[in-house]
Design goal:
The complex is a heterodimer of chains A (152) and B (194). In chain A, 8% of the residues lie in helices and 39% in strands. Chain A is mainly beta and 152 residues long. In chain B, the strands form two sheets. A five-stranded antiparallel sheet of chain B has the order 8-7-6-9-10, with no helix packed on it. Chain B has a three-stranded antiparallel sheet with strand order 4-3-5, with helices on one face. At the A-B interface, strand 2, strand 3, helix 1 and strand 6 of A face strand 1, strand 2 and helix 1 of B. Strand 2 of chain A pairs antiparallel with strand 2 of chain B, so a sheet runs across the interface.
C-alpha cells in the first residue's frame, strides 16, 4: 500500500524474499524428522559422546557419523545472553534469552531461546525444559523454545 | 581415527545408512527444509518515479525524455540510460502498445496467489516509448500471444486507483493488426532517435 505522507514523499513497504528450500541429507534430515515426531536426536561419536544437534562428520576425527540416538528434553544452560529487542523471525515476540543448552544425554550444547520475564531469571547452570510447537513440520522452529524446569 | 592433516584427502563417504531410534524407523523422513531469506525495506521512489506514480492515479503513463537522443523511457528514472544525462522533460505515452517479448508461466509462485498459471508476462512497449516494461497480458489464450501483438491497458476501477503501477491490472489485445518485425527493428532500439 502506497502511503503519501504530509512531507509529500511517497513511501511503500518492499520485501525482497528468496524462498529457498534446501535438501538436508540423512543426518540433518534425521534430526528434523525427530523434531517433527517430538524427539530430539544427537549423533553418537566413536567414544560414545553425543553431538546435539548432530553433525554429518566428527569434528575431530572427520569420521562419518551415522548413529542417531535420542537425547533428553531437559538440559542445562551453559551460557546465555539477553535479547531485549526481538526481531520478526526470532522464536519469541517478547524479550527473551538466547542460551546454549546442553540437553541431558548430549555432550554439546545447542542454541535456542529461553522464555523468562527478564535477565534476572537467567543464570549459567540453570535447568530448562523444551517446549514443543503444537503443529510441527520438521524444522528447527518445531521447538518453540525452553522454559525454566520448575515452570514447565 | 586421528586428526586428518592432509587437506587433499577427501573426507570419507558415508559408510552406511544412518540409523535412527526404532520409534522413527517407519516414519517418512524429512528431506528438505524451508530457509527463506527476506529483506524488508521502506522504498521511496525519488522525484521522477514519484511523478510517474502520481500520474498513474489519473490513468496516465509518464516517461522521461533523453535530452540527447529524444528517446522516451518508461518507467522514468530521472536519468537517460543511453546518454547518462539527467532528464528534465517528462512526456505522456499511450496506454496502448505492443508485445516485444513474452513468457508463459506454468508454475505457481507462492508470493503471488493472485496469479493463476498458465499466465503471460510480457515486455510491453507503450506507443511513444522507446523501451518496454514487464506486464501481464490477459484476455487471450496464452498460446495465442505473439511478438508484435497490439495491446491496451486494462485499468483498475476509478475508485481503486492509487499512486501505483499496479493500477494497470493487465494488457489485453486491441484487435489491431500486429506490429511487424521490420518495424520492431526500427522502434525502440537504443541509439535510434525518434
Amino acid at each position: 500500500m502506497v502511503e503519501s505522507t504530509s512531507d509529500g514523499v511517497l513511501r511503500a513497504p518492499l520485501t525482497l524474499e528468496y524462498p529457498f528450500t534446501r535438501t538436508t541429507g540423512p543426518v540433518v534430515g534425521g534430526f528434523l524428522t525427530g523434531l517433527r515426531e517430538g524427539m530430539v536426536l544427537g549423533a553418537k561419536r566413536a567414544d560414545g559422546t553425543v553431538l546435539c544437534p548432530p553433525l554429518e562428520y566428527d569434528p575431530i576425527s572427520s569420521d562419518p557419523l551415522t548413529e542417531l540416538v535420542e537425547v533428553g528434553q531437559s538440559g542445562t544452560v551453559t551460557t546465555w545472553t539477553w535479547n531485549g529487542e526481538p526481531r520478526a523471525q526470532q522464536p519469541f515476540d517478547q524479550p527473551f534469552a538466547w542460551a546454549m543448552i546442553t540437553l541431558d544425554g548430549a555432550d554439546t550444547p545447542m542454541l535456542h531461546g529461553v522464555f523468562v520475564d527478564g535477565p534476572e531469571a537467567m543464570s549459567t547452570g540453570m535447568r530448562v525444559s523444551l517446549q514443543w510447537k503444537e503443529e510441527r513440520e520438521g524444522h528447527i522452529a518445531d521447538i518453540a523454545g525452553f522454559v525454566p524446569e520448575e515452570a514447565s | 581415527m586421528g586428526y586428518n592433516q592432509d587437506p587433499n584427502v577427501q573426507p570419507a563417504a558415508l559408510s552406511g545408512e544412518v540409523t535412527m531410534p526404532a520409534a522413527l524407523a517407519e516414519v517418512e523422513p524429512v528431506q528438505s527444509v524451508r530457509t527463506p531469506a527476506a529483506i524488508e525495506y521502506i522504498a521511496t521512489p525519488g522525484a521522477s518515479l514519484s511523478a510517474y506514480l502520481r500520474a498513474m492515479k489519473d490513468k496516465k503513463i509518464l516517461g522521461d525524455k533523453c535530452p540527447v537522443t529524444g528517446q522516451v523511457f518508461v518507467p522514468p528514472r530521472g536519468v537517460s540510460p543511453v546518454s547518462g544525462q539527467r532528464t528534465t522533460e517528462m512526456v505522456e505515452v499511450a496506454d496502448a502498445g505492443y508485445v516485444e517479448s513474452f513468457n508463459i508461466t506454468r508454475l505457481p509462485i507462492k508470493s503471488r496467489p493472485d496469479l493463476n498459471p498458465p499466465y503471460v508476462s510480457a515486455w510491453v512497449v507503450p506507443d511513444g516509448a522507446n523501451v518496454g516494461s514487464i506486464s501481464l497480458v490477459a484476455g487471450i489464450e496464452p498460446e495465442d500471444v505473439r511478438i508484435g501483438l497490439r495491446v491496451r491497458a486494462v485499468w483498475k476501477p476509478d475508485d481503486e486507483l492509487e499512486e501505483s503501477a499496479a493500477n494497470i491490472l493487465h494488457w489485453e489485445p486491441t484487435g489491431e493488426p500486429d506490429v511487424v518485425l521490420d518495424d520492431l527493428r526500427v522502434i525502440g532500439k537504443p541509439g535510434d532517435a525518434q
